[in-house]
Automatic annotation (TrEMBL):
Source taxon at top rank: Bacteria
Stretches for region Disordered: 130-158, 298-321
Protein name: LigA protein
One Pfam family hit: DUF5954
Composition bias type Pro residues, residue spans: 136-150
InterPro entries, sorted: DUF5954
Length: 336
């Protein structure tokens, strides 16, 4: 784990370099101050995505699912789009056939690693965490990019899309120290089931390094004397999180037996009445809320990023298999 160790395998490297430009200096100072003000790291539930290997490095195509199957479905959609974009000519027939076979495979089977048209694809696992201090979760830092004005964040790009998972890339001092801190980290006894903890410890050997991903943002709320996530969705900028603040389903449904028309009307009213806050601290219906900074890392090994673990929550079967199961149970009609 040294910037000078030429004999160290790539997947074990953490390269730390001092950056002398003004922006890096301010960012490092922000990170140092926040590590003191928010010293406790709290892990959240893992998130999953899909990535492709390009020139020996893995590039993230998407990262948003709370279960692996959602990311497998997203990878299937990626192949559908690639097949759609591939010309229907004799010269591209083999490529189109490979995409079709990959789509069918993902529709019917649980697959986390496959090669299609000479390129490897993988379902990947990322670990989110937030920093906590005496006053609650860490808010955005002054140096976190926040380029969009209120109400104009729809469609804002997610920084992790296209991000290359490269353990050899040079990092600043604060991020390098954080990576070193995360390398030996695993779930502690009593906080998670035994199989989850065992998988967590096993990952230290199979994927012994970590790479930090671009940060995201969500909304935390103070309820019954403690902070909790208002939503498990992570947004690309602080303002995108603020813009999302009013649209939790339970807040807008008028009553438990509301009809679809009533729900639509309530949602329309919520859109019309909501004015996105411009600050990181605000109230929604009397509940204290805070824009919260979410950091994430991916564990990496000699063969690339870590995939789903056996103990990860993964209740949904592949879509075509699920439909078949529902038909066998009489819960879905046979296709015409």
């Amino acid at each position: 784990m040294t910037q000078h160790g030429r004999q160290v395998p790539d997947h074990l490297l953490i390269r730390i370099a001092q950056r002398n430009d003004p922006v890096s200096a301010v960012s490092e100072d922000d990170a140092r101050r926040r590590s003191l003000a928010y010293p406790k790291l709290m892990w959240g539930a893992p998130v999953f995505g899909h990535a492709e290997e390009v020139a020996g490095r893995w590039r993230i195509l998407g990262l948003s699912g709370d279960q692996p199957q959602g990311s497998r479905d997203a990878l299937g959609s990626h192949f559908r789009q690639l097949r759609k974009e591939t010309p229907e000519t004799a010269g591209h027939a083999a490529e189109r056939r490979e995409y079709r076979e990959a789509i069918r495979l993902l529709d019917w089977e649980v697959v986390d690693d496959l090669t299609v048209h000479g390129r490897r694809y993988r379902i990947i696992r990322a670990q989110p965490f937030i920093r906590m201090g005496p006053d609650g979760p860490e808010p955005p830092r002054p140096t976190d990019p926040d380029p969009y004005p209120p109400g104009s964040t729809r469609g804002a790009p997610y920084q992790e899309e296209g991000f290359v998972i490269d353990p050899t890339a040079t990092t600043g001092l604060s991020d390098g120290l954080l990576r070193i801190e995360m390398v030996p980290a695993f779930y502690q006894a009593g906080l998670v089931p035994d199989d989850v903890r065992a998988d967590s410890r096993r990952a230290l050997a199979t994927h012994p390094n970590v790479v930090l991903l671009p940060v995201g943002f969500t909304i935390g709320e103070y309820v019954h004397g403690s902070w909790q996530p208002r939503s498990f969705t992570t947004y690309p900028t602080p303002q995108a999180a603020r813009d999302s603040a009013a649209f939790r389903f339970g807040d807008i449904v008028p009553h438990e037996d509301a009809s679809l028309e009533e729900i639509r009307a309530a949602y329309t009213r919520a859109l019309e009445e909501f004015e996105a806050p411009r600050t990181d601290e605000f109230e929604i219906r009397g509940v204290r809320c805070r824009v919260t900074r979410v950091e994430r890392f991916v564990r990496v090994g000699p063969d690339g990023p870590e995939g789903p673990r056996p103990s990860d929550w993964d209740p949904e079967p592949p879509p075509e298999l699920h439909c078949q199961q529902l038909r066998e149970q009489g819960l879905l009609p046979d296709p015409d």
